Amino acid sequence: MLAAQRKPSASMAMAERVRQMRERGREVISFAMGDTHVSPAPQIVDGITRAMQSGQTHYSSARGLLELRRAICEHYYHAKYQDDQILVVPGVKQGIYYVLQSLAPKRVCVLEPAWLGYKATANLLNVPVVSNDQTQPGWVDRLRRETFDVLIVCTPNNPDGKVFEASETEQLISICAAKEAWLISDEIYSVYDYSQKWHSLSEFDYKRTIVCNGLSKSHALTGLRIGWIASHHRDLVDACFEAQQHIATCVSTPVQYGVLDMVRPDFAELRATVKQYEANRQAICQRFPRLAPYAPDGALYFFVPASLFGERDGTALAEKLLDEAGIAVVPGEAYGENFSGFIRMSFSVSEATLQTGLNQLTPFLIQ
Ligand SMILES: Cc1ncc(COP(=O)(O)O)c(C=O)c1O
């Protein structure tokens, strides 16, 4: 299939439209992007600058700096992985590409609503994808009956923020074990856990688990492209390492040095951002009590039915909000075919932007 025939990322397509509207002088508030509104912590900016100034600008090992992999093992996984079980990659997106390419699965299963990157990546590799709607009763039994050799999960989930209970994770693992299937766990939103129940799938002893995480969302580094994959299967990590050698060579060396002392899920600036988004989530519930039942366990989004705005179709609603309210959201169809009646609204914005946006949305919500 030619690239032009593939479906573009819905959130990126919306971001492009917002950019064009702004260029034409129209004011638009974007609740479309999965990006933080803050800048990276000064220690990271200083660290990258220092690395540049001291000439740490050359190729690094394709696995990533050893000190960085050690820091990831220690700060994210209580040293459950060894440094050679981690590969530093240019973002989770590319990490998942390496994993799927290396596993060469017959069929991938995703739990919808799901981030559209999983299907897109599988499509690039011509791997068939089957989806399971996890909002419908009986989804676990349906998953058990489904045929797949890779299951991709995301917790907290994009777009609906769902965080798995430990009992659900155990069920997923037992289903995968019975099929000898690989389990890819995308944990990119792990620090945004308002439910206080998030756990990494690395805490469970299933050897075919591949955990993916990174600094895009937690450290405000979406444009710097740094993340990692971790797995007890050294052969898989080695296969991904080989792919990386040929595709990217390595993650930007100054960025790797720059984040060395900050690669942890807990520091003052990060805590402040999480607190801000928790307050935003709360403010939306208070302002629009009809959205409160959709308050996410985690991540950065409300995923809500268009019917709350008097529309049946999420795409029609997104168009209307953009044209009439100057608010950009992402239509739900991007997250699975059962979700065309939904929209995703990001709340990773400043308090002032949130308040202005909510004012503009007020006339469109059914009270
Ligand atoms: C669930 C999920 N995984 C991965 C990514 C991409 O992460 P990265 O910037 O590390 O490639 C996104 C970005 O929106 C996401 O929502």
Automatic annotation (TrEMBL):
<dbReference type="InterPro" id="IPR004838">
    <property type="entry name" value="NHTrfase_class1_PyrdxlP-BS"/>
</dbReference>
<protein>
    <recommendedName>
        <fullName>Aminotransferase</fullName>
        <ecNumber>2.6.1.-</ecNumber>
    </recommendedName>
</protein>
<keyword id="KW-0663">Pyridoxal phosphate</keyword>
<dbReference type="InterPro" id="IPR015421">
    <property type="entry name" value="PyrdxlP-dep_Trfase_major"/>
</dbReference>
<keyword id="KW-0808">Transferase</keyword>
<dbReference type="InterPro" id="IPR004839">
    <property type="entry name" value="Aminotransferase_I/II_large"/>
</dbReference>
<feature type="domain" description="Aminotransferase class I/classII large">
    <location>
        <begin position="27"/>
        <end position="359"/>
    </location>
</feature>
<dbReference type="InterPro" id="IPR050596">
    <property type="entry name" value="AspAT/PAT-like"/>
</dbReference>
<dbReference type="Pfam" id="PF00155">
    <property type="entry name" value="Aminotran_1_2"/>
</dbReference>
<dbReference type="InterPro" id="IPR015424">
    <property type="entry name" value="PyrdxlP-dep_Trfase"/>
</dbReference>
<keyword id="KW-0032">Aminotransferase</keyword>
<dbReference type="GO" id="GO:0008483">
    <property type="term" value="F:transaminase activity"/>
</dbReference>
<comment type="similarity">
    <text>Belongs to the class-I pyridoxal-phosphate-dependent aminotransferase family.</text>
</comment>
